[in-house]
Design goal:
It comes from Kitasatospora phosalacinea. InterPro entries: Histidine_triad_HIT, HIT-like, HIT-like_sf. This protein is an alpha+beta fold. Helix content is 26%, strand content 21%. It has three helices and five strands. It has a five-stranded antiparallel β-sheet, with helices on one face. The chain binds adenosine monophosphate and zinc ion. Adenosine monophosphate binds next to loops.
Length: 117
């Protein structure tokens, strides 16, 4: 059920502490940690503690938490000294989503000149 922990979800396991992560920020409703396979000098993931399969479904169900992801993303970028950064929400396998627990990527620390937009 949406919002409930999912036994097969790697990010739910990070929230519960069953899988370790390099956590850099936590709030009552979110967790921010370093991506295990960084694509830039700074590559963070901000996730809600509750399970929703993607960002849009999170925003529909819990708009306050969705907004908090963005606040935390900016704060985490600032913690790493970034003035410029890119936020990415992959949604669906064809867009590259591999973990079906809502998250936003925070990328930066080098010029990000590649991209579709
Ligand atoms: P996405 O492809 O948008 O679903 O992003 C999932 C991200 O989670 C990928 O960039 C993975 O490298 C990252 N990831 C998967 N497992 C872990 C983990 N145990 N700790 C940190 N990051 C992870
Ligand atoms: Zn989950």
């Amino acid at each position: 059920m949406a919002g409930e922990p999912q036994a097969d979800c790697v990010f739910c396991k990070i929230v519960s502490g069953d899988i370790p992560a390099t956590v850099v920020r936590r709030t009552d409703r979110t967790l921010t940690f370093r991506d295990i396979n960084p694509q830039a000098p700074t590559h963070l993931l901000v996730i809600p503690r509750v399970h929703h399969p993607n960002a849009a479904e999170l925003a529909a169900a819990e708009p306050g938490i969705a907004a908090e992801l963005l606040v935390e993303a900016g704060a985490a970028a600032g913690d790493d000294g970034l003035e410029s950064y890119r936020l990415i929400f992959n949604t669906g396998a064809d867009a590259g989503q591999t973990v079906f627990h809502a998250h936003v990527h925070v990328l930066g620390g080098e010029p990000l000149t590649e991209g579709l937009v």
